[in-house]
Amino acid sequence: MVRFSVVIPAFNEEKYLPRLLDSIETARARYAGGRASIEVIVADNASSDATAEVAAARGCRVARVQKRVIAAARNGGARAAQGEILAFVDADTVRIHPDTFDVIDALISTGRFVGGSTGVEPERWSAGLRVTWAVFLPVVWLTKLDTGVVFCRRGDFEAVGGYDESRPVAEDVAFLLALRRLGRRRGQRLVRARRVKAVASTRKFDQFGEWHYLGMMPRFALQFLLGRPGAREMLDRYWYRPTR
User: Fold this and answer.
1) Which of 37, 53, 61, 184 suits a disulfide with 3, CB 3.0-4.6 Å?
2) Whether pTM exceeds 0.85
3) pLDDT tens for residues 44-81?
4) What is the CATH number of domain 4-120+147-199?
């Protein structure tokens, strides 16, 4: 029986995917429930490189998703999943923690949590990264909304309707908020599995600059809220047409 389905949305990630898959394989081997109870699904979001071939060669199941929206890729992978627990992780993640599956399984098995996330730490530090982290960390503490490996029961994923495909960005935040609402009705809450943080890629900081997040994100939010044409161009350049 499949206990975990790891869903990896991916667009042109042939360069970064192998290192993530290596770390998932290590965590599968460490899992007390057995390696075979964890499947890995790469949701290939209309890649033009060898992402699908790399995934298939590593023994992953490949779900083809043509709609170029990150939420659609996550949902497409989830539709192909057979596991009781869904775990979503971005393809450029450097690595997940070796104990990820044991810790998530223990948390879900208590029945106290509707889902949650592991959180992340960056693959490197700089002054800009430290300040960015310091600005956003209190928001994470207060809301319990985090990134890294995001997990929940498959039934609860279906109950909230999965990821909102009308959202080109922030679909992950909306999803966790929907899970929180579902959990509150049952006396459950979101959890941050901080002991098994994933290591996040800093390639956006490499490409756009060490301080870009503090300047670019407020400008994008304002343009997006005002419906300015520049918001779409910025969105595409940052999330959907990045230089690989």
Assistant:
1) 37
2) yes
3) 999 999 999 999 999 999 999 999 999 999 999 999 99
4) 3.90.550.10
